[in-house]
Amino acid sequence: MLLGQSRAGIEVGEVLEEHENYAPKPQDLPDLLAYLQNETEFTRHTLVEIIRRSGRAEDFKINPQQFITITAKEITKALRELMLTGINYEKIDNDAWDMSLLDEEAGQEIKRYLFDPYQVAHLERTTHDFIDIDSSVERDFATSLDRPDSPVKVFMKLPRWFKVDTPIGTYNPDWAILFDKYERVYMVRETKGKPDKDDLRDSERKKVDCGEKHFAAIGVDFRMVTNLKEALRPLQRESIV
User: Could you state, in order of their start, the residue ranges of all structural domains in the chain?
Assistant: First the structure.
């Protein structure tokens, strides 16, 4: 039967024979190359060659969206590793930060500190009585650093002007820590909700990778962590944390 509509209402008529059978319309596949171009900025020719050499092109038809997501992630990861391979940092003799900059930080940005800062309990361990906090992860980390039984001797939330130069912009790490119980160790720690760098935005991940190389060049242990226990794990002995 065929339903139609006129001024009188719904009309019923006969279906013409040639319209009785309809072939299902093929499912439209997403534009794989356009998406990957947007994510990687590679040419279509290069992307075709990558997919061809992978030997997994047929998988696209099985689950297009998953194929696109995984392919973009793996290409970006390989590109990041290739880009960082040639980056080296060298220590410059007699070049250091002026400690007076810390006083300028406290004076110039006091308004920012008024937004829900962390108040330090053990002032002998750090440079200021309030710490600028950006997240609940940072607040929990500051609390652990500042607790009475903390094994950390000195800590500081690195100010925003403390930046590491990278090919994709400057990087401002989170924490500087001096551990001095069994041995003296200088550490820089980046605090995130998840410890896996692959969970970060691509540009942020690249900056963290560059930060790791930067601090390695000056003999400072650098890691991305979620809490103090992870931060001290490389030094961990019984009863440290």
Answer: 32-85, 100-235
Sequence-separated contacts (24+) of 231-237 with Cβ below 8 Å = 231/141, 231/175, 231/177, 231/187, 231/189, 232/151, 232/152, 232/179, 235/179, 235/182, 235/183, 235/185, 237/182
Taking CB atoms within 8 Å and a gap of at least 24, the contacts of 133-140 are 133/157, 135/191, 135/193, 137/191, 137/192, 137/193, 137/226, 138/174, 138/191, 140/227
Nearest residue to 81 via CA among 205, 223, 216 = 205
Options 3.40.1000, 3.40.1350, 3.30.930, 3.40.50; CATH for 100-235 is 3.40.1350
Do 228 and 150 meet the contact criterion of CB atoms below 8 Å apart?
A: yes
Q: Kindly report which listed range (32-46, 60-74, 96-110, 171-185) carries the lowest average pLDDT score.
A: 96-110
CA 226 and chain centroid, separation: 13
pLDDT for the residue numbered 10: 41
Cβ(229)–Cβ(174) below 8 Å: no
